[in-house]
Amino acid sequence: MSEDSIELRDVCSLIKRGITPKYGENGLVVVNQRCIRNGVIELMNARIHDIVQRKVNAEKILVKDDILVNSTGVGTAGRVGMWIDSVAATCDTHVTIIRPLADRINPTFLFYFLRNMEDVLHDSAEGSTGQTELKRETIGAINTPCFRMSEQEIIAQVLCSLDDKIDLLKRQNKTLEGMAEALFRQWFIEEAQDDWEETSFEHLIEKTIGGDWGKEQPIDDFESECICIRGTDIADYAKGIPANAPTRYLKKSKVSKTQVRHGDVVMETSGGTDNQSTGRTLLFSSKASPLFSSTLVFSNFCRLIRPKHPEFGTFLHYFIKYLLDKKYLFNLENGTSGIKNLDYKTLLFFEKFPLPGDDRVFEFHEKTSPQLDKVIANKIEVRNLEKQRDTLLPKLMSGEVRVQMD
User: Fold this and answer.
1) What is the pTM of this model?
2) 339 and 212 in one domain?
3) Are residues 293 and 342 in contact, defined by beta-carbon separation less than 8 angstroms?
């Protein structure tokens, strides 16, 4: 341990794994590995521990500012989140609870320090393939910077301000997207007309384009002006090939490439599981986006849908999303329990739906396009803020960049 650092165990009152749950309907929320991702703890994947079947030690009930670290598994160990919720909760034995001593270290500063250490934490896990474990002793021995409390607080404020801006933009986007979805349901589901013809999406579509993502050409050899699509969220847009995917490769000679057009829709057609359907869609809706000066590269898990008119893309995106939300697309899936494939040809060219006239589709686009352009702009700003935060974080933690002190 160096003179300007201290072991983590010396600034914490608790470093312990969670409980072995007895799942039930009522009791404590149980945070598991799937809940912790990208520095955030989300409870949509949490389960419930029945406290009648098994009591929980008071020290393992989560309190505000507890830091949780995934502690098992290749690819999952080392992920860090901070508990800020008010619900009664604990975590399972795959997650370590770190409880900072607030008079020794700023909890938010420690969270960001450990976030910066995620790769190191992951690589510190021991054990056989697939069964790696991040031991309590390893976590406790981590050397933590001994910045003055006042400096820790300022560093925490700087990083929190960036994350607060990111969170605000994400919440704004959730509202905007919810407004567009609500308008779609009102116009095309609740107020559907009896005289609408039952037909397929085919008359809206010019063509579909398949992707091809192989393992032959190193990603560094691919053109830097390409946009690489791995999922179906604009957060996966990347100018150039993502640097954080070192095991991914592209077939440079065979990969499907196309110039992005306003109104294009990319749909996930493979890779879903029993718990999550394929069919998620990504809409290229903003003409002003710098993405439209680039070439699109997408994997064979996706299919690009090019509408006959760009304005049709908005309607297609929200109609398919509606079908996904209503679990309709489960009926069009096939494949093994681990990998699901969507029968997109049946969905697009054979399934019949009551569809409105083109004028109504154009009107829907006009009503929602300003909101969607704002969503795109917000998501691009989120990416820029995340890049700024991720660039600043290691420099603040290492002392390369020091904050101004009064």
Assistant:
1) 0.80
2) yes
3) no
